[in-house]
Amino acid sequence: MAHILRIDNDPNVSQQNHQDWTGSHTGLTGNRIEHIPDTLSGAAGGAAGAAAKAGTSIPSPFARLYLFDTAFRMVKNNQLPRELSLYHVLVSHALDMLELLFQAGNSADLTYRVWNRQERLEALRKKANPSTTVRHAHQILAKALELDFRNELGTIQQFTLIYYKGALLGGTSPLSLVFTSPNWEQERQNKFIDPPKSTTGRMLFQNEYVPLHERDTAFVTYLRRLYDQYKDYLPPKGGFSEFLYKAFFDNVVQLPVEANTTLANFEPIQIGGEGNSTLQVLPGLALYKVRENDVLDDIEENSDFVMQPTVSYYQQESRNGAPTNVRKPLALASRMDVAGRYVKNTNWNPQTVIMRSLLNNLSEGGLLAERYLPGVDNVRYPFLTTDDFLEDFLIQVPFKINNKRFFTGTIGECEFLLPIRKEYFNFFRMEDVQKQFAFASEHRGTDKIITATLRIPIRNNRTIEFRKEYNLARSETVIDFRAGLAFFPFYRVTVPDLQQLNQYHVMLADVSDPNIGFRATSSVQFYELQNIIAGKPLNVPTPEARSPKVDPLPASYFYKVTQAFDLMEIRLERGGIPYRGLVLPQFTTITEKGYKNFTFAIDFGTSNTHIAYTDAALGDVEPKALTVSDQNTSLDKDELQMVLFNKPYEGYEAQTIYDKYEKRVSFGGMVQLDQLVRREFIPAIIGKEFGSPFAFPLRTTVYEKSGFTDSTNNLFSKVNLGFNIDLEEGSTGVNHYVTNLKWLFENQPTDTLNRPRVRAFFETLLLLIRNKVILNQGNVQQTAVAWLAPSSMRAVTEDNLVHEWEQAFRNVFGTTNNFRAKPVPESLAPYFYLVKNGVKSFADTVNVDIGGGTADIMLFMKQQGRYLNTSFRFAGYDIWGGGLDEQGHPSHRKDNGFVKNYLAYRRTLNQSPAREDSILDTFLNKPELTAEDIVSLLFKYDHHFKFTQSIQDGKPALRIVLYLHYSAIVYHLVQLLESHNLTLPRYLTFTGRGSQYLGMLGSRSRLIQFTKMLFKAYSNQSIPPDFEVILSDNPKETTANGAVLYENAGSEKAQYENRETTCYWGNEPETVEEGKESEPKFDFEYRRTKIGEVSPQREFHHSVLHNMKRFLEQTLLDRDIAYFLSEYNIQTPERYVEYLVGTDITRGGRLYDSYMLARMGFEQRPNDALGETYFFLPLKHALYELSKYIAES
Question: For the region Disordered, what residue ranges are annotated (predicted)?
């Protein structure tokens, strides 16, 4: 049976059965609706609770429009009701709709669909089947709708349906401007849509009545101006029009209306579509929205929660390259109990929760300008909250962090990376975080809670507290990052034209669990604060592992940062959860150019290298060895150059400065880092006066990754100065040491790694120098650096070294202007220091500088006004080394007699094993290390090894090797002097590390006595009555010290610039009349004659060998000398003549073999110019053989 749906007894509608829609003569007029008995009045929750569904039984598609019109008509005279009715709720809903449109008409949450009267009715009139005459039901609906388009709806041509987040909210109405859908609440819940909110934070469309005077002033003003301008468009006695009239002109409550505001202060709502048309109720009657900028201006100018940033990097935010013009943000925290004006005239609600859904991730490209404020709807204004500045989880390192060099947020001990997001620095400076951030810990029962707090400044000198708690009892709260960090250097230059000096090497040692997601390629990023907003870390090359991770040993990575940076971000991941933390170095800041002019001299030696410097131009200032510490020394404030992330030990057991940085306790659970830093990086403390085992002179060695290939960035990542060689214990894994760097270009001419090895060594020295200058008020641009070289060095070798020096200078200083490319002769430099320390400047003096590979002699013959120097490769290696290999180059053999003797003597000491013994065993087992390296170690730890004692007491005969070495130099010196008709000097001085063995020849007075015996045996000249032999207490330092003084000597050094570099070739001298210079039998020219021209001259070679035989006979067969040697338990020295010479020195014997072997190495480059004597070649291998012979006898 059919039913008629209606709410009154309309006589125009009969009870007969109907199909589809049946027309009515008069329609459902407003008056009829108004006089329908109201059965829905009552209190809220009753009548009001049914408001959403009210009027749904009215049999008209447009009945809801009339319902809202009636609601306004019913409420107009009762705008402040004592009892809430359905009509009040409907009016409130309509006003909510208008307010929502006013606030957010163009928000992405609101969409519009236009229902066009003509188009839709025409579509309904079309027959479903054109071949039949039967009316289709849709045609009947079209007819019914046409009937409804009468009276007040007669002029309407279209409606606009309004959707909120995809759910139908309502539409436009010519009677009340808008209406709401009866199904809105149900659809909202079905689609899990949160109710929209007003700018005051009030939920809209609730079962309540909010009168106009409690609404936003701008909205009330808008309604007034809309009424003033468009009242004629509304039905003359319509409910909405009358409601507004009563509200504004006949109301006991004066509504707030802004006097100078017109509709021009607002903007029409755009609904999109063709031409981006406006939202119109009727033609000419548009609905408006507040101008977004007006809302935002009001917030920025009047909100009490506007953040007070100290930097404006955040304003550089951009979208696809275009600036977002982001405003100064608010600082808000969930449920913060802080009173103050929030948005417009609304105060902050302390119950407001900031959902994460509101937060686009700023660290992943989210834009601050696109955020909507919490607690209110559709107010797009930037704000920041706790999650933007504080991380969710912690990263823990296995040691206490160095809180004097890195910001940790607490004066106490801390093991956590800073859980501040880097985006914080888009708003604040580095010095701000030190005031605003705090770390604290407490125990709650068995749980340990870490609390991080940021106090963010807002308007009126107040702060908002961003706070997070981290419960360490929860496994996901913290991730263990078992890694260490080291930074070199540790300063930042802010002088504009010195920015190129901000170059850093950062070491990361990783022994962490693979499951935490550490990747050297992506887990470490460096930032300058101003580039964080653009999400642009510095372009740092991805490092390869220097040493692999082999538990328990860590992998090592070296990041080369070529410009200043402010922070490091560490990113890890476990189980899909990201973990982030910051490292904030507190660099020493260099704000202005230094005023001191430094001069450095580098004595690049075969076995050891020394650096001396002075920071004053006056010549009477004593040069000093380069040191690095954290102490005030000599009125200079020194600073660390390499700084570790872990905290140095500060307990009572630290007896020296070095102890603070070496004690295992300071490395916590990362004790492996200590050895790794010593091996592959830079020690924190350099200088024996600070208790450090690392002090200049340092071993001339590099530590390199086996099989590495040359690239533009080798330093530390592949090769570095081998600081740790004399502390080395156990296996070095994929790395090894290379020594004898000075002569690599000669001894291994085809090795392509010679250049990167030497360059890395030079670069490290220059970095130490540059940092020393910068950290001690030095003027980098006026710093002078000189180096020393023997005059016997081949020109091509010197050129190769100069090339690497210059490349190293460019890498470190950016220029070679600081560099004195022409080396200071090793024989000349010491004289300037010796004159300051006792040698008479007017006396004839000969200085012999003995290094590891060469000896340089400088003759200062003041009485005759002549200055000569010569150089030869007969030095420390020829005593302590492994002789020559099959090619005539220094060998890697370790069976030198001194070493063999010591190993036998060691077994008699009955000492408890010590660290030094472990180091020695390592040296003995490493094939790349030589006998000379072992002897250097034995001398360094002589107090433990008792190496000197093993010679003097265990096998005193071995000292014959030392006496012969010294005597050979004196013999050659005498021949050199006499070949130039020069007298014996008053002073014979010795410098260079290789000369230290002279201390084993006896006391100074005994050495003078022995030298006079040698002069007497070798020459007929009279010995000066006040002749002295002077040994320097620190012979290696003397050479470099002298070079510093030489560089600062000014005009005084001019007289030595034209010194004569000469050579006595080593042949037997000719007999000449006294007072005349001998005519050389072999007319070789220094640096002119080619080595290949000498090779076939058999007579010359025989003469050299006979001269050597003559030397041995005049030395070992001399009765005075023999007696002298016997006093040192060297008995029957004459027996060594036969051992060395053999039956025919020109055809065989150990001297002959040594000579021929040494010539092989000498003559491999026949086109090189002749630059040194042949005299010592017979001894270069023979002394090694002699030491073995004595050790084994």
Answer: 7-27
Tell me: do 361 and 427 sit in the same domain: yes
How far, rounded to the nearest angstrom, does the alpha carbon of residue 914 sit from its chain's CA centroid? 38
User: Do 472 and 488 belong to one domain?
Assistant: no
CA distances from 949 to 502, 896, 909, 954, 1128 (A): 50, 17, 11, 7, 13
Q: Is 458 left (phi over 0), alpha (psi -120 to 50) or beta?
A: beta
Residue 522 burial (CB count, 10 A): 11
- The mean pLDDT values, 10 residues at a time, for the chain of 1193 residues are 52 52 55 53 50 64 86 90 91 95 89 85 71 66 75 79 94 93 92 87 90 90 92 86 92 89 92 79 91 90 97 95 95 96 89 90 91 87 96 97 94 94 97 95 91 97 96 94 96 94 97 94 96 94 93 93 97 95 96 92 94 77 89 65 94 90 92 95 94 94 92 90 93 92 91 95 97 92 93 91 96 92 90 85 91 92 89 94 92 94 92 91 91 92 94 94 97 96 94 92 95 97 95 88 86 79 91 62 88 94 97 96 94 94 94 96 89 96 96 91
Looking at the structure, tell me whether residues 185 and 239 fall in a common domain.
Answer: yes
Last residue of a domain, one of 811, 829, 847: 829
The secondary structure of 570-635 as a DSSP string is EEEEETTEEEEEEE-B-PEEE-S---B--EEEEEE-SSEEEEEEES-SSTTSPPEE--B-SSEETT
How far apart CA 1116 and CA 1124 sit, in angstroms, is 11
Question: d(Cα 398, Cα 646) in Å, to the nearest integer?
Answer: 9
- Provide DSSP, 832-880: HHHHTTT--TTS-EEEEEE-SS-EEEEEEETTTTEEEEEEES-STHHHH
Q: Which helix (H) or strand (E) holds 1105?
A: helix 1098-1116
C-alpha 589/C-alpha 608 separation (Å) is 34
Domain count, the chain: 4
Whether cis (ω within 30° of 0) applies to the bond prior to 256 is no
In angstroms, how far is the first alpha carbon of the chain from the final one?
Answer: 135
Q: Which residue has the tokens 């390296």?
A: 933
660/653 Cα distance (integer angstroms): 9
Q: Indicate whether 102 and 169 sit together in one domain.
A: yes
DSSP β-bridge partners for residue 988: 846, 1029
Residue 257: give the domain boundaries.
Answer: 30-289
* pTM of the shown model: 0.84
Asked if 438 and 453 touch (Cβ cutoff 8 Å), the reply is yes
For residue 1082, the number of C-alpha atoms closer than 13 Å in the C-beta half-sphere is: 25
Q: Which of 572, 590, 608 is the last residue before a domain boundary? A: 590
